[in-house]
Design a protein that fits this description.
The protein is of the alpha+beta class and about 70 residues long. The protein has one domain. The protein contains one helix and three strands. Strands 1-2-3 form a three-stranded antiparallel beta sheet, covered by helices on one side. The chain is about 30% helix and about 40% strand.
């Protein structure tokens, strides 16, 4: 994972986040849960906002720890 985008202007699902990956993947989609196109994964849509926020916070923490430890 490279970064988590969850700003107002990010192209993301409703109540969701977009995770930018370091490697590209194939096109995948599970309606209402997640989608992947290239190196971007959108997570959210039908997921509760609080749970998606907690998940995004955890991902940002893991990315920070990984980059800090090299």
């Amino acid at each position: 994972m490279a970064r988590v985008e969850r700003g107002v202007f990010a192209f993301k699902p409703a109540n969701g986040v977009v995770v930018s990956l370091r490697r590209r993947g194939s096109l995948r989609w599970v309606p209402g849960l997640w989608w992947r196109t290239g190196a971007r994964v959108g997570i959210g849509g039908m997921t509760p906002k609080g749970q998606t926020k907690a998940f995004a916070d955890l991902l940002q923490h893991l990315i920070a720890e990984t980059s800090k430890n090299g």
